[in-house]
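Work Package 3 (structural annotation) set out to generate three-dimensional models for the target panel prioritized at the project kickoff. During this period the team completed the workflow that converts sequence records into discrete structure tokens, so that structures can be stored uniformly alongside our sequence database. As a representative example, we reproduce one entry of 261 residues exactly as it appears in the project archive.
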Amino acid sequence: MKNLNELLNLAGKSAIVTGGALGIGYGIVYRLAEAGAKVMVADLNEVEMNKVVADLAAKGWSVKGLKVDVSNEEDVKNMVAKTVEAFGSVDVIVNNAGIYPSIPIMKMDKKDFEKVIAVNLEGVFLCTKYVAEQMIKQGNGGSIINVSSIDALHPSSVGLAHYDASKHGVWGFTKNSALELAPHKIWVNAIVPGGIATTGVKSMQGKPEMEKFMETFLAKIPMHRMGDIDDIGKVALFLASDMSSYMTGSQIVVDGGVLLS
């Protein structure tokens, strides 16, 4: 048996984290880099991405950044190529990039729906396809981690029908891609966050409708608190490491128990 330090050691591995500049993505980048992985932070927000790269590089960790739109096929191909160029391989990808504009169905148009599906679901498909292609070429297996949502299991609020559809799709895609890629020793799993106190969530506080929603939502959480980004970062590390070596096609719910209510 490996000792605990070996199980959690990602030295020699390289990872991509989409949407890695802020919130949950940053929490994941931090833990993977801390564990020794070389990490490519893929994000549309270049300003925040550059801050993350500078901050973590100052700790002596190997982190680079790249502007990427995960719904754009050429961007995704370039992301994989640039990661291989920088680090020599791609061993882990965390498909975290996602959007969640709140729009009731009766006010939603086709473009609203398609944009969310393009980023949240098609982006996971494109990243999985081209990263898995590289992993198969390398011949050493790998780990694909999809960040889903409790909305894939139960709706959290009105206005997220397009988001919920995308996250249900991510769960179905996770299971089927796990089945297809297992012969190549590529494990595919999903993290299912509940309410996480990200920068985006905090920025919406102060709005009367948001305050009312948060009060109702918090009352449903048995742990009586929102999650922290590191609550997701630690689970991503678990799935990227040998700690989860006999897991594929699984999802881990990290929600403070809200689905129990």
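The radius of gyration is 18 Å.
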